[in-house]
Structure of Wall-associated receptor kinase-like 3:
Amino acid sequence: MVISCCYGAATTSAASALIAKPNCTAHCGDVAIPYPFGIGPNKDCYLDEWFQIDCRHNNSTTSANYSRQVPFLKSVNLELLSIFPVKDGRQLVRVKNPITLFSCEGKETRQAQNLTGSPFIYSRTANALVAVDCDLFARMISDHDRVIGCGSFCQSIKDGSYGFCGGIGCCEAALQTYDLASFEMQSNSSTSIPMGDCKYAFLVDKDWFLVELPNFWHVKHMDNVPVVLDWILNANDYGERFREKPDLTGNYSTPICRRNNVTLTSLYNRTSMICRCKLGMEGNPYLLQPCQDIDECKGSNQCGDDVCENVAGGYSCHSNINGRTRICTHFASILHPNNTNTTCHFIPTPGQASQTIILGLGSGVGLLFLLIGAWWVHKIVKKRKTIARKKMFFKRNGGLLLEQQLLSGEVNLDKIKLFNSKELEKATNNFSIDRILGQGGQGTVYKGMLVDGRIVAVKKSKMVDKSKLSEFINEVVILSQINHRNVVQIMGCCLETEVPLLVYEFIPNGTLSQYIQGQIEEFPFTWDKRLQIATEVAGALSYLHGAASFPIYHRDIKSANILLDEKYRAKIADFGTSRSISIDQTHLTTRVHGTFGYLDPEYFRSSQFTEKSDVYSFGVVLVELLTGQKPVSAATGSQEEEYRSLATYFITSMQEDRLFNLVDAQVLEEGSETEIQVVANLARRCLNMNGRDRPTMREVTSELEAVLMSRKSLISAQQNSDGIDFGEDDSVGNWDVESLSEVSASY
């Protein structure tokens, strides 16, 4: 394979300071090797074994590359492309990363190198997950069980006509974790994959993929792509060695080594040590040698025709104005290194000294009054700017449209309130990190207390697309009209902030997924409680689909979006992706959105979301309640770890008459065999691959209510029988649910 040469070239000037230790090799081929990295075997040339570089000869027999040396990061055996600094003083490492192939006959497929235990991690900001081919869903399973994935869709586009990676033939996804040390590439396809039809997935340097690669189809001729590694210099181990200094004062030539304000990784529980030269200086700070002053007078500066004088960390411009010398000194800005801070002063002549003193005293008094006046003016201007800024945000976030809805009477003024930003800042203690209840794809939720003592949940949305503002306001209006005991109620919103804020009633007892997975053990999660929650959620969805003013599709039903109130009643939450439709519509055509494990396969293939797509997601939740298992989990009994879909495994178990091997032990102990069979058959119908063959939520609600009522009657009869043991109610066994057509296990 060939990777652009710009990732291996070392661009150093003659004025550059020493990058390696004395008597140590500074380059391998055309790649610069700065300390703490170093070329062996001399151990003094590198910090420790993790940073040792092995300089090898290229095995190529072509005359052009015969004698070229290639560096390898010896500790993890990865070919090194370059080591380059970034603005905060860190050095990032670019290495070759293998492309993982799927269904590629005759070609070896490889996974990325496992970096666990080393100081290296895959950079979250510099890399992206990319998948190339048609009808491919690629996912990256990290060593923390995090799932990152993306899907590409097309019928037969392999002629390279699509060079832009935007979902057709190619997709990309940003990383979501700072501590990624190892991962495994896996894939799914919505169609059967013929052997030999190669599909590609890999982690790649975003800059190389977007700029250097002409067309994403070119990766089919490659074995590797560049990937960027970050590294962690443990402050606890090396802080004393690198003379840690937390301030910016002192000699300009002395490098600064200090702890990073943010712990780069929770995985290793280590704090990063970063060294850098002060602004206006250059060199390798990890060598602990004096940094060299940059002579700005020999390069770019603002002196023009004036006399330039170089000073430590900056430069001065000397000019003559009306017989007086003016000196303007320029230093790099600490907050904005690309800008400069400038201070100017005049040097008076000896005859002007006494006059200067008198003028100085008078000017000082005048300046004092001027500063007082300027402070008042600044305060007034700042207040006006704040008001204007709030008005601008209010208008940009759709406030005028919402006011029209309020005045037209479409929204009940007693049901929704327009909060101001100060109310919600005070309620959440300025959105303190210790008030965070949870974070998701739509934003962050904070716990707050209003001035009247009510506890609320404040959702701080992510940046809103201007083209979607009318839809956002429309959703607020729709949610304000929902009145159902099992749907989280919206109380109001705030539109005068940079991003919209939504205020909901506070639900105290966590999410359903926490109870299913046993994270909350103090509450007994009985079979009766599971039936009650399933019936309540089904009733709420039935209301949204048919009883509301306009049908509403939730589009992200999952156990993590079902909350439990103080009486452990279910409430559906997170309507950030919900959509309302007109009564005569049957579906929505949208970009595929949802959570892996709950996503309707029919919607995944067609991009058409119907009410039956919500039914499929509810079916997964029903299976979770029956089995106590996650929607996506590691398969057991295989030598290599694989991940399976709970829905697919459940259907297969029912077809093979192994249902009761899958059901949760507490459900088996408390529920009758007939009840479990009825609920399982209902879940199976909800998971039908053909949406038209799935039941409606009204039908689902009726069947669950019948099971719940029958169970209550049976328990009541047993309690009134004064110890007489009754058998199972045969009437429940007559609820035969229609069998499903065979479900494909490809999803």
Notes: Confidence is low (pLDDT under 50) at residues 1-17, 262-268, 582-587, 724-747. The domain at 400-505 is CATH 3.30.200.20 (Phosphorylase Kinase; domain 1). The first strand starts at residue 27 and ends at 28.
